[in-house]
Write a structure and sequence with these properties.
single chain; alpha+beta; six-stranded mixed β-sheet; five-stranded mixed β-sheet; 12 helices; disordered C terminus
């Protein structure tokens, strides 16, 4: 049976998932065996476009031909021209979406082109329409455009008893941040408050770290021209992201650097990194405070029952520590890199159930999968059908 895919079209990394026969959301691996694919496109030459890890690595040697963070441009008039062809944010995103689905089809043998795509909760109509347009350009049938925190909360709710509870989703991804508060009643999720920052994400932590590493390299080697070497800066950028991830579990990271006969080994500790990026983390706390204030003003709710951390950047220990010390919460890191894609796959199932019910009264195969997953078919279908 052809089953729709759920796609987390991320700013820095993307993922695609579908439900198996048991009703379990499974993220499909790409051609490199990775569960997530860098949302990066390399225009290698006329008629040659590369998406994913190779594109990201190529930014070191061919930075002018590589596009990343395109999600931040959705809904705008941004465009770039490569080899005589003009590309908008929608058409670049379409290249990423097509790569994701082609890879998922090759991996699963499921040749569906039906998809649900997620977006940040604060995306307006222009951004949502641009995301849907990207799917259409990619040759996909876009069933729904779904808020990322709702998808993550739905995935979390499938395996946890959250009925009657108030859930806050703190989503710090690679390029965007949002916080949403929702209640769950009779298996249905009701979004009460959404807030966020479209230009705040893990990439900003990386950028601060790039500056620190560069300054220390120049200080140790006297190589002042390093700051003008695009390839060297790209190399530091790659190592900065690796360092950020390493410091989530290690207390320090050593980075050997070499340029034009100059070399240095830069050591960065977790404490230094935390202190350096504290203003960025404080920005997320400020947005969270604002969302809580709105929640109280509009709905009279002052208690949060569950706090779910989503997005790869929430792996940084400073994030749950700050939320615990500021608000007294005990945040749960919930499958941060994959929860949104898995939740989107659940939405996709709900959409398919709804469509099947409208066409033929029911679809036994789809319903069986939903029941195996212990999903309330009507509730999931209703939630999915509300999204446009």
């Amino acid at each position: 049976m052809s089953r729709p895919f759920g796609i987390d079209l991320g700013t820095t990394y993307s993922a695609v998932a579908t439900l198996d026969d048991s009703g379990t959301p499974r993220v499909t691996r790409n051609e490199n065996g990775e569960e997530t694919t860098p949302s990066v496109v390399w225009f290698e030459g006329p008629g040659s476009v590369v998406v994913g890890s190779t594109a990201k690595e190529s930014a070191v040697v061919d930075p002018d031909s590589v596009i990343s963070l395109v999600k931040r441009q959705m809904g705008t008039t941004w465009s770039q021209t490569f080899f005589g062809d003009k590309y908008t944010a929608e058409s670049v995103s379409a290249l990423i979406l097509r790569n994701l689905v082609d890879g998922a089809v090759a991996t699963t043998g499921n040749d569906s082109r039906d998809v649900v795509i997620t977006v940040p909760a604060y995306f307006g109509q222009l951004e949502r329409e641009a995301t849907k347009a990207a799917g259409v350009i990619a040759g996909l049938n876009v069933l729904s455009i779904v808020p990322e925190p709702v998808a993550a909360a739905l995935h979390y709710g499938v395996s946890n008893d959250v009925d009657g509870r108030t859930i806050l989703v703190f989503d710090l991804g690679g390029g965007t941040f949002d916080v949403s508060v929702m209640t769950v009643a009779d298996g249905k999720f009701h979004v009460l408050v959404t807030d966020g920052d479209a230009s705040l994400g893990g990439t900003d932590w990386d950028n601060d770290l790039v500056q620190l590493i560069l300054e220390r390299y120049v200080s140790e080697t006297g190589d002042v021209d390093a700051a003008f070497d695009e390839q060297f800066i790209q190399e530091i950028t790659t190592k900065a992201e690796q360092t950020k991830k390493a410091l989530s579990t290690a207390e320090q990271k050593r980075l050997p650097l070499r340029r034009d006969g100059n070399s240095a080994t830069i050591v960065v500790t977790r404490t230094e990194f935390t202190d350096l990026t504290r203003p960025l983390l404080q920005d997320t706390i400020s947005v969270t405070r604002r969302a809580l204030s709105t929640l109280e003003e509009k709905h009279g709710i002052t208690t949060i029952d569950e706090v779910i951390l989503v997005g790869g950047s929430t792996r940084m220990p400073a994030v749950p520590e700050a939320l615990a010390s500021t608000f007294g919460w005990s945040p749960k890191v919930h499958d941060p890199d994959l929860a949104v894609a898995k939740g989107a796959a659940v939405f996709a199932l709900g959409r398919q159930v709804h469509a099947s019910a409208e066409r033929s009264g029911n679809s036994a195969a789809v319903t069986a999968i939903a029941q195996n997953a212990r999903l309330d078919v009507s509730a999931v279908a209703a939630i999915a059908n509300k999204e446009t």
